[in-house]
Amino acid sequence: MEEQAVSYRSVNENPCHMCMPIGAILPFKGVERSMVLIHGSQGCSTYMRRHISEHFNEPVDVGSSSLNEKGTVYGGEANLKQGLDNLIKIYHPSLIGVLTTCLAETIGEDIDRIGQEYLRERKMDNFPLVTVPTPGYGHSHSEGFSLAVKRILARLARKSPSHGRINVLVPNISPADLREIKRLLEIMGVRYTLLPDFSETLDAPFTSPYHKIPSGGTGLNSIREMPGAIATLQMGVTLEEGFSPGKYLEEEYRVPLFNLPLPIGLENTDTFIRSLQKVTGAPVPEILLKERGRLLDAMVDAHKYNFAGRCIIFGEPELVYAMAGTCLENGVTPVAVATGGKGAKLKTLLQTLRDRYAADAPDTGNGKGVGPVFLPEADFDIMRRTARERGANLAIGHSGGKYLTEKEGIPLVRMGFPIHDRVGGQRIFSAGYAGTTVFLDRITNTLLERKLSGYRERIYRQFYRGKKYDLV
Amino acid sequence: MGLREQDIDSILDVYPAKVKRNRKKHILLRDTALETQEIEANARTIPGIISNRGCAFAGCKGVVLGPLKDFVHIVHGPIGCAYYTWGTRRNKARIEDPKQYFLNYCFSTDMQESDIVFGGEKKLAGMIDEVVETFHPNAIAVTATCPVGLIGDDIQAVAREAEKRHGVPVMAFNCEGYRGVSQSAGHHIANNGLMEHVIGRGDLEEPPTRFAVNMLGEYNIGGDSWEIERVLRDIGYEVIAVMTGGGSFETLKNAHVANLNLVQCHRSINYIADMLEKKYGTPWLKINFIGINNTIQSLRNMAVYFGDAKLQERTEEVIAREMSRVEPVLEQYRKICQGKTAFCFVGGSRGHNYQGIFAELGVETILAGYEFAHRDDYEGRAIIPQIKINADNQNIPELTVEPDKKRFRMKVSPEKMAELQEKIPLCEYKGMIVEMQSSSLIVDDLNHFETEAFIERLKPDIFCSGIKDKYVAHKMGVPSKQLHSYDYSGPYYGFKGAVKFAQDITMGFVSPTWNYITPPWKNKPLLKGDVQKEEVQNVGLYTKRT
After folding, report:
1. Is the CB of B430 inside 8 Å of chain A's CB atoms?
2. For residues A407 and A395, what is the distance between their CA atoms, to the nearest angstrom?
3. Spatial CB neighbours of A382, under 8 Å, sequence gap ≥ 6
4. Quick check: A99 and A38 in contact, CB under 8 A?
5. Left if phi > 0, otherwise alpha if psi is -120 to 50, otherwise beta: which for B423?
6. Contact between chains at B448 and A43 (C-beta distance less than 8 A)
7. B-chain residues within 8 Å CB-CB of A43?
């Protein structure tokens, strides 16, 4: 596999990823009546709320222990405890997540100890306080997300009698896709616990009156009972073990773990449905067969346009992997893939994917081969140069990619988190057969728009160059 | 309509007693019968309360330095803080030299755990080298995030060395997030740095014209400053430097030659205004270019300052011309806005500065406040000597400046100054409180809980704040206007901006969307005789809360 050397530069120019705590906030928004408090400077919580709010177009309440110099020098214990008091008094949450920051980790705050002490002092021993160590310099927001899910499980899960449900663990995907996954589970007749589930909380309907903590999210009791499940389906093929909540359930409670890709793309959705079928043993309902047929129909109709696509894909590892598969099965060549991180596991997976498709792939004429090529620790500067070198004509990823459009004229199909320059990040629908169909349409139509917008001019140049014909 | 002290008390009852006592001091019921009213401000944020405040880094890099277009802004720290300040403020700039324009870039040293353990100075120095080699920027600003100060990276030394090595101005700002109580600390740090490293660095000794001004505390959100510059140039002013919207190292370095400094946002830039007066003898004038009346008043005050008959004449000509263009248009919007009420909670200056335009449109500001202002922004500068210095505000080093031996020119004699101060707010700002109506509410550091409680009690027709709280208002069925980034709209300043603003908030009032909040099956049965009348009332203006 072609591979770019790990970045030799010191500079990160226009980053592709964010820091760990912002990712860790999201799972807490997908747990019923839960609140989060960030232990550090208040700027952290303000920036992250701002970024999450702008993506989901929803209020995102996240507390801060508002550490300043005094707390930095003498320790932030008092601030954290007072913060928890106020949060509880005003919001009455059923669970609180406490995240750390660069600041808290650098001064060595022991939030586990402070947390336990707090609960003892307030005589709230059983209250679920979930601590997550998330230094900004630790990992990216994707790892922050998985680690938070893992820590929620570690705090709540307890040995439970078998109850016949399955656990479904998801990475950071849109509320629309969460809803689609739930719909598929229901159509398949599977009883399940989905964690996290921010499909209602971060895409809340307009209702009156306003609730400070929106309804929805995975129930605490359901989480507690997750060890009693038949199996765990984790959409986490790219997860490193230390960050795998499914692995935790397997090791601690022997819940069999099945890692599968996000059900985006025909093959990935097939894998998901097939896994569910193994659980129920029942045939796949007619409605899904129709949806699959419709997707296939769309793929057949669009394949003649899609072969022109040479895309650069970026975002969080799990999503990026599913999108790369979707592109490949439609003849769109991913010329580069990036997450901003090192992506050791993702790299191997992409290699396998590439090998499978390479045998049948024609040389599209420019001798640049079939992707996907993974760019480790890439920023948008590296991506931009790679896109140019490899003749990319399509970008798929979060709104940071608008830079590729501005600088290189490469159109962007917006996917993932964050989407800051368009509304509806929370409604981007791409999962399941139905979602893949609209995702594919977005890809094909973007290619068509590009093709058709300069069509007359290009033909003119090609056939009438130098002659004095007027364009009619 | 209007709250009483006991109403405020009952709202705050949700808090633990200590918190309630604290918050009470930050909330003021305006009583115009009183000579002065005090409010607590620039104090520590209460932990766990969902405040809208940011940190010193946000104030320094995000607000004051960020808009400078020919700087490469290197954020020294882990990746997050750089990402979060990447193009989020909508500060626009004209590209004069495409090679010296870096606003759409985001640079981070992306510190990893090993950098935290072993120090990040080398990485930073290496990055500065790469940046110089690749971009050749006019200047480089290094801003620190939390861990930098804690692990003891000496970014000042790294910057000094790099400047020597490359001959390019490199300046470092120790604006770690934990400094001070809000972004206000960061403004101060940025002001000091610009004064120390940029202003006065140019060779210009004399202004190109007598009517040379700087515009301070103007960040060109959505193009605000362009509208003001258009009018100022038309009158005959030369704008030397804008601090910092659309500004640059190239223009700021000659800011010392101006004959007057205009101050739009008092909070974020008053330090520079003060220091320019001490060092170069240039006084500052508090202007406000938001709203027609305020714009006109500001232009006239400027003309009074310069005391030139021709300039005054031209000022009146331009005002008359602009008025004839905008007044008829504004009149249409006024008819719709008349009688409405607004919350105006912004920053350290706009919470006050926007009240004028609301009043012109017939919208009463019933609650206003600042996120991070100081008492002088509420009570006026006269209060400054009485503000207690405490552990939180004393650790931003004061920069002491002396009159510049070569360049100090007293622009206005003390006698003339006294005379002018009778007429215009020269080196003076009276703050928000004096301009507010009785029984209106002033809230410092408004948080999510209070936002919701006050919206519920006071039922404003529009809620003006930022992106983090606007969705709360939306969910409560109240239109909002982001006064930080204007919801991708603007400019709102000056004459044309006033029209744009009026149009935008009117749109909020009359959007048909509000009529659908109550579904038809919750209304009266549709087949009754009085239905038509009902329907007519529902079409058109948003009438939910009559």
Report:
1. no
2. 12
3. A4, A7, A338, A375
4. yes
5. alpha
6. no
7. 54-58, 81, 177, 183
| Active site annotation includes B58 | yes
**Distance between CA atoms of residues A288 and A434, nearest Å:** 9
Mean pLDDT (whole number) for A221-230: 98
With contacts defined as CB-CB under 8 Å, which chain A residues touch B44?
Answer: 66, 68
Q: Measured between beta carbons, which residues in chain B are less than 8 angstroms from residue A210?
A: 452, 472, 475-476
| CB < 8 Å from A in window 161-190 of B | 176-183
Q: Report chain B residues whose CB lies below 8 A from the CB of A17.
A: 79, 83
Residue A471: φ, ψ to 5°? -75, 130
- What are the residues whose beta carbons fall under 8 Å from the beta carbon of B303, sequence distance 6 or more? B311, B312, B315
The whole-number pLDDT of residue A293 equals: 98
**Cα angle A170-A173-A174, degrees, rounded to a multiple of 5:** 135
Longest distance between any two alpha carbons in chain B, whole Å: 86
Tell whether B360 is within 8 A of chain A (Cβ): no
**Residue B406: is it exposed, middle or buried by C-beta count within 10 angstroms (0-12/13-18/19+)?**
exposed
Judged by a CB distance cut-off of 8 A, whether residue B154 touches chain A is no
Domain spanning B1-54+205-546: which CATH class is it, in words? alpha beta
With an 8 Å Cβ cutoff, are A59 and B107 in contact?
no
Provide the shortest C-alpha distance from residue B434 to chain A (in Å).
31
Active site residue B55: yes
Closest approach of chain A CAs to the CA of B112, in angstroms?
5
Contact A101 B146 (CB under 8 A): yes
Residue A309 to residue A83: CA distance in whole angstroms: 51
User: What pLDDT digit, counting tens, does each position of B362-414 carry?
Assistant: 999 999 999 999 999 999 999 999 998 876 766 677 899 999 999 999 999 99
Categorize the per-residue pLDDT at A469 as very low, low, confident or very high, splitting at 50, 70 and 90: low
pLDDT in tens, A53-80: 999 999 999 999 999 888 888 999 999 9
Only one residue has tokens 């005090």, namely B38
Question: What is the C-alpha radius of gyration for chain A, rounded to an integer number of angstroms?
Answer: 24
pLDDT tens digits along A234-250: 999 999 989 999 999 99
Instruction: Tell me the pLDDT tens digit for each residue of B49-89.
Output: 999 999 999 999 999 999 999 999 999 999 999 999 998 88
- The tokens for B54 are 């940011």
For chain B, the domains span 1-54+205-546, 56-178
**β-sheet with A63-64: strand ranges across:** A63-64, A34-39, A95-100, A129-132
B523-528 contact pairs (CB < 8 A, 24+)? none
Helix (H) or strand (E) holding A273: helix A266-280
The edge-to-edge listing of strands for the beta sheet with A394-397 is: A374-375, A333-338, A310-314, A394-397, A412-414
Spatial CA neighbour of B351 closest among B324, B332, B373, B330: B373
Given pLDDT bands bounded at 50, 70 and 90, which one contains residue A230?
Answer: very high
Note the Cα B166 to chain centre separation in Å: 35
- For A21, nearest residue in chain B (alpha carbons): B80
Q: Which of A104, A141, A130 is nearest to A22 (CA)?
A: A141
DSSP conformational letter for B104: T
How far is residue B19 from each of residues A334, B14, B393, B405, B443, measured CA to CA in Å? 55, 9, 21, 51, 15
At A242 the three-state DSSP class reads helix
Q: Which chain A residues touch B178 with a CB distance below 8 Å? A: 40-41, 67-69, 71-72, 103
Asked about B160 being catalytic, the answer comes back as no
Can you give the pTM of this predicted structure?
0.94
Q: Which fold has domain B56-178?
A: Rossmann fold (3.40.50)
